[in-house]
Amino acid sequence: MPDPAVLAQQANDPTFPGIWEELVWRGHVHVSTDAEELRHLLAGGPITYYCGFDPTAPSLHLGNLVQLLVMRRLQLAGHRPLGLVGGSTGLIGDPRPTAERTLNTKDTVEEWVGYLQAQVSRFLSAEGDNAVTLVNNLDWTAPLSAIDFLRDIGKYYRVGTMLKKDAVSARLNSDAGISYTEFSYQILQGMDYLELYRAHGCVLQTGGSDQWGNLTSGTDLIRRAEGVSVHAIGTPLVTNSDGTKFGKSEGNAVWLDPALTSPYAFYQFWLNTDDADVISRLKVFTFLPRVEIERLESLVASEPFKREAQRTLAWDVTSLVHGVEATDAAIHAAQALFGQGDLSSLDQATLEAALRELPNTTASSSAAVVHLLVDTGLSASLSEARRAIAQGGVYLNNHKVDSDEATIAGAVLPGGFAVLRRGKKTLAGVFVA
Q1: What is the pTM of this model?
Q2: How far apart are CA 118 and CA 156, in angstroms?
Q3: Statement: residue 250 has pLDDT above 80
Q4: Which is deepest, 73, 98, 142, 160, by most CB within 10 Å?
Q5: What CATH architecture is 4-237?
């Protein structure tokens, strides 16, 4: 369930003429159907809109968070959200640029549907006249026979148009090619929009700009089948200033599930945002008003060393996703690791999560500090480790190590952890076997 206190603090910025203008300012609109029509539509009475999330993993990630925040901003403007988790499309997966997806079992997908529905519901209000409604496309896809699918839906699609979709054409030009299964994905997503239009009067779909071919599959289908025009918004793919894809590191997504990306790692991810990226991140991922973001922008230019914008970003987004208590724990853990707090006062789960993010090693409870410095990479050799200790630059659990014969015996923290630090900022973790 969503945190009522968090939702109550969220608001759109009243200095904009309407929600469309705010979406544009925040950088949420990369491509769309008729922009002027959308501006009028969103400025009028409540409409129903949707965004889909496929259960191809047990958690949503930061790319999905962009969509959830767009949905929440539209809900705050009075519009009615439908949160679709794709029990049927998740069995297939949208085409990737290079190779076929590994198909997950039906039981796995069903389990993941539950996880994602719980995550979606945390970011959207279930109260009031425009409460979120969760839907699962397996409900209308499973009863449909292959003959009915081909007759009732397939007849509206032209193969030539389908071949021109970016995701399809990229695969056709690759060595892997594309299966009929993934080729058909765009039809299933288009059918979702048609079903939601018929059942709920849905007239807007949002999604990432890389999904634009699938988004327009739905708008085209509704135009052909129902003779009406509906809309789509494609948000930009959020990338870092150097062009690298946002939310990826070594191919690993930053997940919203704390079991997959700890609140500590999540907080540090945002805290380490580059100056060149932090203002755009504040626009996309927070509900801070324009005047506050502009104030932080001036501080990035005049006093970048204070990193107030990064600390604000890290606090806001981590609190949004994991709650205030977990965010406080992550901040206290970081302070304690760098000698500004009592390590023994940290809860074990937070400390362990923090140490997993550092260079670390496993050792016995009587391991020598000099060997641990080498094992964790804090020193390149035993002789270098001994010099570092002699120079007073090595700390064990924030206490200076004054002998090169020191061990960790008697210094192991509750839970079987120890923290090594060389100098002010270089840290490593020790897990006692």
Answers
A1: 0.92
A2: 34
A3: no
A4: 73
A5: 3-Layer(aba) Sandwich (3.40)
